[in-house]
Amino acid sequence: MKENTLFVEHYRPTKLDNYVGNENIKKVIKQYLDQDDIQNLCFYGPVGTGKTTLAKLIVKNLDCDYLYINASDERGIDTIRDKVTSFASTASFKSLKVVILDEADFLTINAQASLRNVIETFSRSTRFILTCNYIERIIDPLQSRCQTLKIVPPSKVEVAKHLAWILGEENISFIVDDIKNIVNQFYPDLRKMLNTIQLSIIDNKLSVDKSVLVSNNYMNLLLKELKSKKVSLILTSPPYPGINIPYSRWQIHGRRNTTLPYLILGLERPKIKSIYNFQNPTNNTFDVYFNTMRNIFSSLRKISSNKTLILQLVAFNNKDGVFSKYLKTMEECGFKELKIKSNGYIWRKVPNRSWQARLKGNIPASNEVLLLHKLK
Ligand SMILES: Nc1ncnc2c1ncn2[C@@H]1O[C@H](COP(=O)(O)OP(=O)(O)OP(=O)(O)O)[C@@H](O)[C@H]1O
Ligand SMILES: [Mg+2]
């Protein structure tokens, strides 16, 4: 076969003309390529929809030296200091250098912070292209140093045409319904579609095994499954009151985030920024924390039966006010407590994180408690 046997690599477009969809962004990029220079760019959008492809396409079509880093493998500040800085500061025959930081949302906050200076220091000769799934995981000062461009998945029809074209190039015969099913199943993830197609080729024919196409929409399937009250054990460790974390989203299928708790309740899904405020640390009332908690646990109640057991580990800085409010909120959500010990709870001291201990001294850590609940 050709130089790269994987469809995802072999058919990764290297020219703007072959890049499917995103006409507006292509116009912007075309202008840059015509000038042979780019701004710092940050592409964000769903998995497998062409962010890495676009970043690589750009450096291939510019007269530049480039460095590619997958930030999900190299997340720390050392990468920025060692690799990026040394690349940017080394003399080169080319007038332009480009650093691709793929999956930059995996960079640690410290690494992101140090990147801001690097971008500024080398702004004369070096450009940066960041890609990420979630733009809100990129710190604001970095976002403001880049032109942020949202990669919108190409339409289902465009994707289906693209897949049909690839099969034509490979002389594979197929029926259109098989392509439709694959697109419906995996949209918008082109990587999944291409891999599925490649694995489904037998004797120059596309033969799609129906079992890979479980349902047109796994979210709906999961929702149906959950609502049929089959969940018997829920293990969870909610964010401790006082910690800013996106808990109102659940993770399914690896890195896919979903606001499933809100779908279960039939509520409007929270806006991307507000989901971080499971408890907004600037607001000492804990309103946001307890409202979010109510939504999450009310949705857990909807997928629970009489047999369901909820076991959670959650920590509190002080055992009094907030803890009793927490227990009361569980009750309001329709759960009753099962006492593990007749004479109280099982607590453990949570050790301080080392950076916190360095900052604040050896203050007492928070207390974590084991809680068991069933439906009332
Ligand atoms: N717009 C597109 N036009 C043509 N092919 C595409 C396009 N987008 C994606 N593909 C194909 O899908 C594969 C996966 O795309 P890519 O690696 O760019 O996804 P990604 O957006 O970077 O995903 P992730 O978020 O998982 O990193 C590519 O190798 C390419 O073959
Ligand atoms: Mg990518």
Give structural notes.
The longest helix is centred in the C-terminal third of the chain and has 16 residues, at 287-302. The chain contains 14 helices and 14 strands. The radius of gyration is 25 Å and the shape is flat. It is of the alpha/beta class. The structure holds adenosine-5'-triphosphate and magnesium ion. Adenosine-5'-triphosphate (ATP) binds next to helix 3 and helix 9.
Secondary-structure blueprint:
Blueprint: H1 7-10, H2 23-35, E1 41-44, H3 51-60, E2 64-70, H4 77-89, E3 96-102, H5 109-121, E4 126-132, H6 140-144, E5 147-150, H7 156-169, H8 176-186, H9 190-199, E6 201-202, E7 205-206, H10 218-227, E8 231-236, E9 250-252, E10 256-258, H11 260-265, H12 287-302, E11 304-316, H13 321-332, E12 335-338, E13 347-349, H14 354-360, E14 367-375
Parallel strand pairs: 1-4, 1-5, 2-3, 3-4, 8-11
Antiparallel strand pairs: 6-7, 9-10, 11-14, 12-14, 13-14
The structure holds adenosine-5'-triphosphate and magnesium ion.
Structural category is alpha/beta
End-to-end Cα distance, whole Å, is: 63 Å
The average pLDDT score comes to 85
Largest beta-sheet characterization: 5 strands, parallel
* String of helices and strands: HHEHEHEHEHEHHHEEHEEEHHEHEEHE
Trace the largest sheet across and list its strands: 2-3-4-1-5
Overall 3D form: flat
How much strand?
15-25%
Bound molecules: adenosine-5'-triphosphate, magnesium ion
Instruction: Give the total of beta strands.
Output: 14
Helix count equals 14
- Ranges where pLDDT stays below 50 over 5 or more residues in a row are 273-277
Helix content percent band = 25-40%
